[in-house]
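TL;DR need structure tokens for one chain.
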Amino acid sequence: MKIAGARRIPVWLLATWCLTRLALLFFVFKVWAFPGPDVTSDVSVIYQGWYDVLKTGTFPLNDVTWQYPPAAALAILSPGLLPFLDYAQAFYVLAFLADLAAFCLLQYAGLRPGKTLRGAWMWVVGVAVLGPTVYARYDVMVTAVAIAALLAGVRHPRVMGALVGFGALLKVWPVLLLAGAVRRRAWVAAAATAGGLGLLFQLTMPGAFTFLTFQRDRGTEVESLGSLVFHVARHFGWQGQVLLNYGSVEFLGPYVARVSAVALFLTVIAFGWLLLWRVSVRRMPPRALADAAFVAVLLFTVTSRVISPQYMVWLVGLAAVCLCFRGSRMVLPGGLVLAACIATVLEFPVYFGDVVGSTRLGVALLLARNGLLVLATLTAALQLWRGTVSRQPPTVPPQTARTQETLTSS
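>> reply
TL;DR here they are.
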């Protein structure tokens, strides 16, 4: 018996996911070599170093590169669940499983009535394009939680809130998923989950919130929007440096503090726009929850002092949820994010040496990536405003429309 509304299994989608993910595993397990510097060193060196500290029951109190909220410890400690593998291998397997979970959620949502598989395709292609960096960072795990939260949000606000609260303690940015949440239950559940888990970590592991002070003296990261000022200035005699600082490659020197201050000011402006949007909303169709989250994270990504390659995983995941809805207004912004993923894998890791050296190629790649992100942000914000704030033309009843059509033809 055929189930009403059933759709065929998307064989090509499954095949594409399997082939691309096999390739990613081959890259991180070093069966194949990916161009550019080794992206897996963060796992085998930095993450494993944190693992050795965290398993003693304390956070890395004297390591300024630890800049993550307390639940991030769960992601770093998770390879211990697979003791038959070494740390790095176990981490890659768990990142793969998080990717699989996100894919299954998007595919399930896409097969439901009123939905489409464009979102699943966005995830499959976007993650594949970004390359092995996705499996060499824990951001894919956070993004899987964010995808689950948004997909649950329309019908189950409490579940969404709990997942958002947990995600915020993994890497802060999932709190922005509440930008479009209109039900108080989602906010209460998020606050209760984050507060409860945060208190638990504070009581059981020393240094749970020391990360809040570790970013105070950061410079401007070489891949950020503001970094373009210094990439160009280096060709005109700017006397600054590019150094590994606070765990990332940053510009340090004259005027860096001013550019960082401008970035902070732009973040405040972005927050102000979101507040203006919230108080101006006239209607909130179901898809607006995901659209608002996508716009919020775009705004805070482009205005950040850091736009690391793994940030693109967040945007791909949120764009994928938006595209699950038929008639989504985020098709163009999602396409721009996908194009930015192509520029991202070229600037890191393939031509990262050119980026650090501020060569013409490196500057061109950064200009392309960051320009696409800015364009995606502006178009997404415009579409969100039009879909939820702008007045819609009055709907003409079908019978009236037919009468008007008859009068016109006669």
